[in-house]
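User: C-alpha cells in, sequence out, please.
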C-alpha cells in the first residue's frame, strides 16, 4: 500500500490567509454592508416621504393661521381703511390687534402677517396694496407686485374665496411659504386678503431633526448587526478550521480523522460529507491487500510517470472463464431474472478471484478475464483460483439451475476456464471520453480460444504455465490432451485437471 506524506500546505492554511480574506471578516463586512445598504435605502426613502409630509404639514399650518385670522377680521371695517391716515382709526387698531394676537400666539414676526388687497380696477391684477400690518410704523397704501410663483394662490383666494398656499419660493429676504385667506364683508364679498408668510427655516429645522433621528437609527441598526455578524463569521471560521485540520490529518495517513460539528449548517453538511468520504476511502484502502499487484503497480506508476497510459509489454498469467449453458438458460428467464442471475455469477467469480490476488480486467457478457503477475506466486495463485472457481460452481450448482413451474430442472450452467502465461501489452485503450486500462495481445486471444474449447467444469492449462507450478499443483493438472484452436495450424498440447477435480 502506498504511504501518505504530510503536506506542508494544509496545517498552516489559516495562518497564511490575510485577515481581509478570512471568512469572519468577509461575512461581517458583507452583513454590515447589507445593513447599511438596506438601512440607507430606507433612510433615503423615509426621508423623502417625511420631507414631503413635513412640507405639507407646514403648508397646512400656514393655511390654518391665515384662515383663522381672516375669519377673526371684520371685513366691513377693513373695507373702510383706504389711505395712510386711516392707520389712526379705530378700525385699523382693532384689525391690528387681531393680527398682533395671532402673531404672538404662533410665533410670527411683524413682517410675516398682514392684510392686503388688489389695487383699484384698471391696474395690474397682481399688484396689491397693504391695508393692515403689525409694524411699528404703518404703511397703508404701499404697493408691491405679487411674485409670479404666488399668483395662482393669490387669485384662488381673491376670486375663488379659498384659503390657498404657495410652494417654497425665494426672494431677497429669504425662503418662504405663504398662505392667502379671503377677508369677507357682511355681504360675503372678498374685500381683502390676509397673507401669512412663514420662513422655511422653521420647516428646515424640523427636517434636520428628522434627518438626525433617521441617521441615529441607521447607525444603531448597523452597530447592532456588527456583533452578530462577527459571531456568525467566527462560527463559520471555526467549522472551516475543524474541517481543514481533519483534512490535514487524513492527508498524513490518519484514516480515522473525523469532524464533529453541531451547527447543522452547510459547514456541518460538508463535515458530514468529509466523514463519509474518509470512511469510504478508508474502507477501500483496507481492501488494497486484496488487490492484485498488477493493478497496484499500475496505480503506483501513474503517480510518477507521465506517459503511464501508453502501452507497456510485460509477462502475465491470464485466466478466462466462460459460463457454459447460460445462453440456453437465459431463454427461460425473465429480463429481471436474467440480470440477477448474471450478476450473482459474476459476483461469485469476483469474490474468488480477488481472494486469490487476481485483478479482474473486464467482464465480457458472462465471461471474465483476470490477470496475475507472472513473477513470484502469481502462477500458483492463478491455478489455485481456477480450481477454486470450479469447486465453488459445483458447490453452488443448485443455485444456478433454471427450473420450470413444476420445479423440474430445465437448464444448468457450468464454468469452462483456461489459463495461459505469456507477454501482453498493458495500457489505456479507448478515447478521451471513455478509457479502459486493459491487457491486449496474442496471449489474451490465445487464452480466449483455449477457453472456448474447455468443457463444462474443466480448466485447461498451457505447458508454459504448467511449468511454473509447484509439484503439488502440477499433479492436479495431470490429464494431457491436444486441442485445435481457431486460426492455429497445429494442435496445442494442454493439461486439464484430474478427474477428482471435476467431480
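Assistant: Sequence out:
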Amino acid at each position: 500500500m502506498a504511504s501518505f506524506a504530510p503536506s506542508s500546505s494544509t496545517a498552516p492554511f489559516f495562518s497564511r490567509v490575510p485577515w481581509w480574506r478570512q471568512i469572519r471578516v468577509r461575512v461581517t463586512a458583507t452583513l454590515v454592508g447589507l445593513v447599511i445598504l438596506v438601512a440607507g435605502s430606507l433612510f433615503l426613502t423615509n426621508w423623502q416621504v417625511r420631507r414631503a409630509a413635513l412640507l405639507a404639514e407646514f403648508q397646512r399650518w400656514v393655511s390654518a393661521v391665515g384662515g383663522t385670522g381672516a375669519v377673526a377680521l371684520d371685513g366691513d371695517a377693513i373695507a373702510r381703511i383706504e389711505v395712510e391716515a386711516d392707520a389712526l382709526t379705530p378700525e385699523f387698531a382693532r384689525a391690528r390687534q387681531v393680527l398682533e394676537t395671532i402673531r404672538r400666539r404662533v410665533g410670527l414676526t411683524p413682517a410675516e402677517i398682514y392684510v392686503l388687497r388688489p389695487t383699484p380696477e384698471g391696474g395690474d391684477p397682481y399688484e396689491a396694496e397693504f391695508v393692515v400690518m403689525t409694524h411699528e410704523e404703518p404703511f397703508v397704501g404701499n404697493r408691491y407686485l405679487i411674485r409670479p410663483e404666488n399668483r395662482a394662490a393669490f387669485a384662488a383666494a381673491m376670486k375663488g374665496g379659498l384659503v390657498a398656499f404657495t410652494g417654497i419660493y425665494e426672494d431677497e429676504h429669504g425662503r418662504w411659504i405663504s398662505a392667502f385667506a379671503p377677508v369677507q364683508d357682511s355681504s360675503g364679498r372678498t374685500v381683502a386678503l390676509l397673507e401669512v408668510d412663514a420662513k422655511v427655516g422653521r420647516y428646515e429645522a424640523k427636517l434636520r431633526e428628522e434627518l438626525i433621528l433617521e441617521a441615529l437609527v441607521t447607525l444603531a441598526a448597523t452597530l447592532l448587526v456588527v456583533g452578530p455578524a462577527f459571531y456568525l463569521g467566527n462560527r463559520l471560521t471555526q467549522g472551516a478550521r475543524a474541517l481543514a485540520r481533519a483534512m490535514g490529518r487524513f492527508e498524513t495517513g490518519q484514516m480515522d480523522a473525523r469532524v464533529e460539528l453541531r451547527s447543522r449548517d452547510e459547514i456541518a453538511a460538508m463535515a458530514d460529507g468529509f466523514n463519509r468520504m474518509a470512511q469510504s476511502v478508508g474502507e477501500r484502502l483496507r481492501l488494497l491487500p486484496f488487490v492484485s499487484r498488477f493493478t497496484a503497480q499500475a496505480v503506483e506508476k501513474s503517480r510518477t510517470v507521465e506517459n503511464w497510459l501508453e502501452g507497456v509489454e510485460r509477462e502475465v498469467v491470464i485466466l478466462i472463464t466462460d459460463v457454459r449453458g447460460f445462453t440456453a438458460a437465459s431463454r427461460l428467464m425473465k429480463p429481471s431474472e436474467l440480470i440477477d442471475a448474471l450478476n450473482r455469477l459474476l459476483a461469485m467469480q469476483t469474490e474468488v478471484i480477488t481472494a486469490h490476488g487476481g485483478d479482474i480486467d473486464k467482464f465480457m457478457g458472462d465471461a471474465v478475464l483476470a490477470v496475475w503477475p507472472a513473477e513470484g506466486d502469481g502462477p500458483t495463485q492463478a491455478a489455485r483460483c481456477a480450481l477454486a472457481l470450479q469447486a465453488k460452481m459445483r458447490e453452488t450448482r443448485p443455485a444456478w439451475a433454471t427450473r420450470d413451474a413444476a420445479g423440474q430442472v430445465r437448464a444448468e450452467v457450468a464454468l469452462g476456464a483456461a489459463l495461459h502465461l505469456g507477454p501482453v501489452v498493458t495500457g489505456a485503450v479507448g478515447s478521451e471520453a471513455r478509457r479502459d486500462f486493459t491487457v491486449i495481445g496474442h496471449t489474451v486471444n490465445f487464452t480466449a480460444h483455449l477457453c472456448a474449447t474447455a468443457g463444462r467444469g474443466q480448466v485447461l492449462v498451457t505447458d508454459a504455465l504448467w511449468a511454473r507450478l509447484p509439484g503439488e499443483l502440477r499433479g492436479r493438472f495431470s490429464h494431457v490432451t491436444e486441442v485445435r484452436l481457431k486460426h492455429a495450424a497445429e494442435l496445442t498440447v494442454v493439461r486439464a485437471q484430474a478427474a477428482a477435480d471435476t467431480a
